[in-house]
Amino acid sequence: MNCKQNNNRGGWVKYPLLLFSMGMMAYGFIRQEHLTVLKKAITICLECIGVG
């Protein structure tokens, strides 16, 4: 039985997808979206423990 996997399938998608995702992360960082996410996470956590 041959258990060898075909690694060539989908190889052309890997690097453009990586570059696109890194570009979108950089765009979000420039727009300071990480601060918005952190603020919402803090609010949700405070609501869960009953402080906020």
In total, the number of strands is 0
Basic shape:
elongated
Q: Could you spell the SSE succession in H and E letters?
A: HH
C-alpha-based Rg, rounded: 20 Å
Characterization of the model:
By secondary structure, this protein is an all-alpha fold. It has helices spanning 11-30, 33-49. It is elongated and about 60 Å long. The chain contains 2 helices and no strands. The N and C termini lie far apart (61 Å).
Quick gist of this model?
With 52 residues, the protein is mainly alpha-helical.
Chain-wise SSE layout:
Layout: H1 11-30, H2 33-49
For this entry, give a set of tags.
52 residues, mainly alpha, 2 helices
